[in-house]
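Project outcomes to date are best conveyed with an example. Our students and postdoctoral researchers have been running inverse folding experiments weekly, and each run begins with a structure described purely in tokens. The record below, which covers 157 residues, was selected by the lab manager from last quarter's runs and is presented without edits.
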């Protein structure tokens, strides 16, 4: 009963769905042309300004087939935490951090992902998102600067 009541209390919190594209940057990013990502977040309202929750999604760095040695796409599923601070009704800062479950290349270890971001609400329930997205696996680090759009399905969103 308590679990059902607890879920009902938070059922009006909010789901966010985002899509973005970015340019890979840094030394380990050379074999990749573009970074594409979709994410799904569930956020709890701590206050009107502060939201925390969980995030997951699908992330793919598309390999440049003309690069030598030939690289394959790097694909991972991020699973982690998300936080957002509303500076104003239109402007917010936040970030995601967690574990990256690597799907490709095969037999690759997982790693840590992180993504500080700034968002601007340009229409109701939709934000323009500018983010730095990083991935660290073993000794290698891959990152991108991305831009995208995020749609929120909040009662207060």
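After processing, the design step wrote out the following sequence:
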């Amino acid at each position: 009963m308590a679990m059902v009541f607890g879920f009902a209390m938070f059922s009006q919190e909010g789901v966010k769905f985002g899509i973005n594209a970015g340019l890979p940057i840094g030394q380990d990013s050379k074999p990749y042309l573009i970074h594409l990502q979709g994410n799904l977040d569930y956020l709890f309202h701590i206050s009107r300004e502060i939201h925390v929750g969980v995030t997951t999604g699908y992330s793919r760095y598309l390999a440049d087939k003309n690069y030598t040695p030939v690289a394959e796409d790097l694909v991972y599923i991020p699973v982690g935490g998300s936080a957002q601070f509303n500076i104003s009704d239109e402007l917010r800062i936040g970030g995601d951090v967690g574990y990256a479950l690597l799907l490709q290349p095969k037999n690759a270890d997982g790693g840590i992902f992180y993504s500080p971001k700034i968002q601007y609400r340009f229409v109701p329930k939709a934000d323009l998102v500018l983010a730095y997205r990083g991935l660290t696996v073993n000794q290698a680090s891959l990152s991108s600067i991305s831009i995208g759009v995020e749609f929120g399905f909040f009662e207060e969103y």
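Residues 2-10 form the longest helix (9 residues). Residues 20-33+54-110+132-157 form one domain. The training component of this project remains on track.
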